[in-house]
Amino acid sequence: MAGENEPGTVRPGGRTARVREAVLRAAEDALTELGFTHLDLADVARRAGVGKTTVYRRWGTVTGLVADVLLDMAEQSAPRTETGSLSGDLKANARLVQRTLTDPRQAALFKALIAAATGDTKTAAALHRFYDIRVAEWAPCVRQAVERGEVPAGTDAEEVVRAVSAPLYYRLLIGGGPLDEAAADRAAEAAEAAARAGAYVRGREKPA
């Protein structure tokens, strides 16, 4: 998580909270329309209807603002679904990712943020924090599956969750076919099968 003194990371109330909300939504709009390389704090301030000084004082830099956008996205994401089975939980996760990545605004936003992260280390760190938060939200479904005996003890819960979403991001970014519910279900089923087979057990010996 961001440090206490990083710009834009305080969660204030009242008018300050409304200003933060307006600026973050304006930043998302600008990222979606223009991309990271053309993101400008003055333009974001204009879109949000707030003074430039406010934006520069609170966020300081474009990367500081993007970091707060990602933190807010992680906080606003839908909570984990518990269905009582690993299959159901992983499919719920996959379908949530699929819906997010097929939403026109969200898909464009993620593409812009991922593209920015490839060339900016601070944005990359912020993106990693975002996914760490989301993976940690869903990892308990795998740990519960271990307790139920559905997958072997020692299964790396975080890796299983990452394996569910990885094919969906591949389709988003590389164009590997339709990104629909069927694709989401297949991704979940593949991750579940691998987990049941012990592919994600920590320290698993590899064949010679």
Notes on the protein architecture:
By secondary structure, the protein is mainly alpha-helical. The protein has 2 domains: 14-72, Orthogonal Bundle (Arc Repressor Mutant, subunit A); 77-196, Tetracycline Repressor, domain 2 (Orthogonal Bundle). The protein has helices at 14-34, 41-48, 52-59, 62-76, 86-102, 104-117, 121-148, 157-174, 181-196. Helix 5 runs parallel beside helix 8 and helix 8 runs antiparallel to helix 9. The protein is elongated. Mean pLDDT is 89; it is low at 1-12.
Helix and strand layout, with pairings?
Layout lengths: L13 H21 L6 H8 L3 H8 L2 H15 L9 H17 L1 H14 L3 H28 L8 H18 L6 H16 L12
Helix pairs in contact: 1-2, 1-4, 1-6, 2-3, 4-7, 5-7, 5-8, 5-9, 6-7, 7-8, 8-9
Would you summarize the structure shown here?
The chain is mostly helical. It folds into two domains: 14-72, Arc Repressor Mutant, subunit A (Orthogonal Bundle); 77-196, Tetracycline Repressor, domain 2 (Orthogonal Bundle), CATH 1.10.357.10. The chain has helices at 14-34, 41-48, 52-59, 62-76, 86-102, 104-117, 121-148, 157-174, 181-196.
- SS-based structural class? mainly alpha
Looking at how many chains there are and whether they match, the oligomeric state comes to single chain
Fourth-level CATH superfamily of the largest domain: Tetracycline Repressor, domain 2
CATH-defined topology of the largest domain: Tetracycline Repressor, domain 2
CATH architecture of the largest domain: Orthogonal Bundle
CA-atom Rg in angstroms: 19 Å
Structural shape: elongated
For the sheet with most strands, the description reads:
none
**Quantity of strands, as a count:** 0
Order of helices and strands: HHHHHHHHH
Low-pLDDT runs: 1-12
Average pLDDT confidence is 89
Head-to-tail CA distance between termini: 40 Å
Helix fraction, binned, reads: 55-70%
Number of domains: 2
Strand composition percent: under 5%
